[in-house]
Give the backbone structure.
Amino acid sequence: MTFVLRDVAPTDIDALHAIYAYHVVHGTGSWEYEPPDAAEMTRRYEAVRAAGYPYLVAEVAGRVVGYSYASAFRGRPGYRFTCEDSIYVAPDLQRRGVARALLTELMTRCTALGLRQMLAVIGDSENTASIALHHALGFALLTDARALGWKFRRDLGWVLMQRTLATTPFPPASLEVRVDDPAGAAGQALLWGLTLELLAMDGDRGEDGRGAVTLGDLQAPDAVFVVARMDGQPAGCGALRPLEPGVAEVKRMYTAPWARGKGVAAGVLTALETQAVARGHTILRLETGDRQIAANRLYERAGFVRIPCYGAYAARDWSRCYEKRLG
Ligand SMILES: CC(C)(COP(=O)(O)OP(=O)(O)OC[C@H]1O[C@@H](n2cnc3c(N)ncnc32)[C@H](O)[C@@H]1OP(=O)(O)O)[C@@H](O)C(=O)NCCC(=O)NCCS
């Protein structure tokens, strides 16, 4: 039997609907009781396509006889390199290699998209056809969970199978630094990390973790707070507040431990410099402590030079103050 594989088209909906409805009414691959109507089928298909996943059909002599698609395994972004497959073949054309071809092509497409793992959540531990199909295409059995579902008046288990699509290196880190609300969830969580770290480092010297700035200082109209996100995850922060005419002070520089050594703080400093210039400042100053080895190195590498300590820091022999002329 010869068949062709191609991307799904909106005109395929009726055929997909008929195949799926058959399997809902007669099978245990889907745990729906009532077949969805064509409008719901369209909505689901559009959601898969809108998320960028492949959706394929197999055609025999102009008739759609099977389909497969990938979708997100779970919604949280940490699962973004893992997908789940779904595959359905018309009852009269099974065991002719349609599913094998659909799933093979689906894996190829998903690999090309940068997906790394494919999971098969087989909705019935007695679905020998699907289990054998996935096994034949290199999926490993992960678990066989019992009695999670109930259909046709019997308990149904789950067979979870996994296929590694790619073990290539992860994409290079993306870093984005944006002005943000210091009272927002990401800002607060980062500032909390900084507070705990300052307390651990200099609490014995009376450091209270607030670095002599309040949330109100950071929210003032002439202050700026930025959050750096690496691969979309809050990774670091920094702030700027006016010190005297033309001079701004860098405060609250922090990189979460998992993101250290990857240029986050350098990116935050660059963003703060841009903000300072836009606000007409020509000099940046900052204070750090003698135990903050990484911070001292960061500021020196970013072009800051040591100056005598200013303001209240002049009285603290463990303060280290720096300055950088902009422009
Ligand atoms: C599972 C399903 C998609 C397989 O479709 P198919 O087109 O008949 O499968 P293929 O002909 O491509 O079979 C490929 C391989 O899978 C295995 N396989 C498929 N059907 C099988 C069966 N009934 N018994 C044992 N092995 C089977 C075999 O290893 C087969 O290779 P082989 O024929 O060279 O031995 C189909 O039975 C179906 O639509 N079932 C209902 C929906 C469903 O359960 N979907 C999966 C949800 S997780």
The chain has a mean pLDDT of 96. Helices lie at 13-26, 38-50, 98-112, 128-136, 185-202, 215-219, 264-278, 293-301. The first helix runs from residue 13 to 26. The first strand starts at residue 4 and ends at 7.
